[in-house]
Fold this protein.
Amino acid sequence: MIRIDTIWLAVQPLDMRAGADTAMAQVIHVFGAARPHHAYLFANKRANRLKVLVHDGIGLWLATRRLHQGSFHWQRGAGQRLELNPAQLQALVLGLPWQSMQDAGVIHLH
């Protein structure tokens, strides 16, 4: 339904009260522009809530996900943004350690 060519993770937290316009402003601030068919992921400070903003070339899609226990494995500190592959995105939204995902979808613990 929504084509996503590139997935970006914003390292800095986002206030989860932010709506589509505020999230879009943060995308432009962090990534320089909102490109069509790119997904932009943000988490709150505790990393137990996630927002995904997708620009489909016409409009915006904004989705949220909340973990009731634990937190998302979120990258902090290294730069302002990271590019993820689809397997890493799937692991991230499930609360798995996406940083350890290999191209074949295998998880390795360090």
